[in-house]
Amino acid sequence: MRDSRDASCRLLAVALSGLVAAAPLLAQQTDSSAARKQRTDSAASTTLRAVQVRGRADNLIGIASSASQGRIGRADLRLRPLQREGEILEAVPGMILTQHSGDGKANQMVVRGFNLDHGTDFQTRLESMPLNLPTHGHGHGYTYLNPLIPEFVDHLEYKLGPMYAELGDFGSAGGATLHLTRSLLKPVALLESGAFGFRRAVLGAGASTRRNQFIVGGEAKQYDGPWEQPQRLGKFSGLARWTYTGQRDEISVLALGYANKWNATDQIPARAFASGAIGRFGQVDPTLGGDASRNSLSLSWTRTQRRGKLAIDAFVVRHDLNLFSNFTYFLDNAGRGDQINQTDRRTIGGVNLELTRVGIVSGVAHALRTGVQLRGDDIAVGLYRSDRRVRGDTVRRDNIRQGSAGAYASLESHWSPRVRTVLGVRQDWYDFHVQSNDSRNSGTRLATIGSPKASLVFSPVSGTELYLGGGLGFHSNDARGTTIRFDPVSGDPATPVNPLVRSRAAELGLRTSRGEWLRTTASLWALNLDSELLFVGDAGTTEALGGTHRVGVTMANFVKPVSTLSLDTDVSFTRARFADVGRDADRIPGALERVITAGATWEPRRGVHAVARVRHFGSSALTEDNRVRGTPTTLLNLSVGGTIRGTRLTASMLNASNARSSDVQYFYASRLAGESGAGVADVHFHPVEPRMLRVGLSRGF
């Protein structure tokens, strides 16, 4: 064990020394001509300036390295009617977030033909802090968005695909970073009420001096939902932030807190609903639920110089989850039932460093970014059998120390006013140490992987760019899967999974911007994943899935025909298949083939608005042979609002057409009381919630 740690330290030392050595490389500058100086200043301005993110109206020509990256600002986010906090990520083109259980649990996520479960293969960050939780008690990559207070989100940045050097683990399908506000000019307050016991209050206040900004805020939320077993969700979130802005330095300290309890509303078998045994909003097991908490403290420091910028982020996070689920009802135990209890308690610590330098080399303007990302998780996870939330036998219990180090470099070169390139490389190191209650499944694994990236950008005419890019990415696997030797239930031999799994991607893209009124992107992309073999937290063992390949087209459009009206439409079509299997069994269950989102926002004057948004995802295969397919879902959300004497009144109608669709659909075997011991293979679905009205009063937002 000591040798493996020494090896990790040596590898990390090499990465750090490489970063230090490479950083000054482009600090040199020769002002031999005005043209060279102009290109240098242009590169510096593009790379180093503090950009005020307004929203989709932002012009990313000359900034973006692909057609699949963008920014969504507060102006676009603040009027979106949301049912759940996580739906804020649906601003990312082609992305859908749903729920198959109580609103305290992480969302189901789908993008680019990936059924991400709760987040695997899509890297999500809140400021500098990673939200994906590796080796999680419920599912690897578990991404918890429920602590968010949407009103305090300033903007989000997204990058689809693995072509970006700063994206490491979980980034094969891309990533997004959520940024919170750093100042409040005046106190803010929001009170909301709606159908099915919905109550919500948000408060915030700020103070400022010449160089300091202070904000505090909080949210309390209750919700029963339409379920026969009331959800009784009780959420509390809070934040406090101090930001110092100097001539060259900006320092920010952010503290976040969150706690939640709920009754779960898991998916139900279609046969039980069809027979009338349970209602559409009923439950087979009404004793499910959970509680969760997340507390964090982060520090960010940025120093800007004329030809460079240094950013350092440090964070510590405490996450706790206690979850009770039952997906197969009485399949494994006809008497007590199949309820399970999953627990995850961890402390996360990490540091991110990034240094940017710009300059002239041989008459060409370059910008070099080098970075190091360090993370360590101290994890205690457990899987237990339970009955009516009373814990029983232990299936598996583990203490895990998981560390990672990633070093990257990205070189952007402006060869001419029409041509630039971005070359990147990344190296990652992992150390998994597992102590299991069954010593045969304990062990240590070390792994490393390198990931080159490249993009060519060509501007044929002003306001238009063409992109050709590609790169290698990866995702890690659950640490327990890397050391497993025996199935904890059957005792049969089990095969360990590869610690790191390679992905490969290529993309051809187009971006067009016209004045302030048009932003359009289109991308044709392909992505291969070597293996989707994974560790299943619900069973405590591995599930064999082969390699996959995905191809697709994604288009994102923003139009502002007049100053008071903005329109947006995002369309994504995907073909996802298992590799090296027959065409009669190559479908990837749950991989959405079509996602369309569209919206219209009308603001005739300040304080008055009307919004309509449509969210659609099409039919998809639920089985590998495509014989069972899910049904499509289309939802319409509406919102109107106006301001009188500083108080805004908003009314939102969610699922305005009262569609009887499904949030998620699965096909697997389960057993209801009285059915045969082998169970019944059936569609299991979680219904979308019915039409509901929510009304809010706010000041300051």
Automatic annotation (TrEMBL):
<dbReference type="Pfam" id="PF07715">
    <property type="entry name" value="Plug"/>
</dbReference>
<dbReference type="InterPro" id="IPR000531">
    <property type="entry name" value="Beta-barrel_TonB"/>
</dbReference>
<feature type="signal peptide">
    <location>
        <begin position="1"/>
        <end position="22"/>
    </location>
</feature>
<dbReference type="Pfam" id="PF00593">
    <property type="entry name" value="TonB_dep_Rec_b-barrel"/>
</dbReference>
<dbReference type="GO" id="GO:0015344">
    <property type="term" value="F:siderophore uptake transmembrane transporter activity"/>
</dbReference>
<protein>
    <submittedName>
        <fullName>TonB-dependent receptor</fullName>
    </submittedName>
</protein>
<keyword id="KW-0998">Cell outer membrane</keyword>
<dbReference type="GO" id="GO:0044718">
    <property type="term" value="P:siderophore transmembrane transport"/>
</dbReference>
<keyword id="KW-0812">Transmembrane</keyword>
<feature type="domain" description="TonB-dependent receptor-like beta-barrel">
    <location>
        <begin position="262"/>
        <end position="653"/>
    </location>
</feature>
<dbReference type="GO" id="GO:0009279">
    <property type="term" value="C:cell outer membrane"/>
</dbReference>
<keyword id="KW-0732">Signal</keyword>
<comment type="similarity">
    <text>Belongs to the TonB-dependent receptor family.</text>
</comment>
<keyword id="KW-0813">Transport</keyword>
<feature type="domain" description="TonB-dependent receptor plug">
    <location>
        <begin position="68"/>
        <end position="174"/>
    </location>
</feature>
<dbReference type="InterPro" id="IPR039426">
    <property type="entry name" value="TonB-dep_rcpt-like"/>
</dbReference>
<keyword id="KW-1134">Transmembrane beta strand</keyword>
<keyword id="KW-0798">TonB box</keyword>
<dbReference type="InterPro" id="IPR036942">
    <property type="entry name" value="Beta-barrel_TonB_sf"/>
</dbReference>
<keyword id="KW-0675">Receptor</keyword>
<keyword id="KW-0472">Membrane</keyword>
<dbReference type="InterPro" id="IPR012910">
    <property type="entry name" value="Plug_dom"/>
</dbReference>
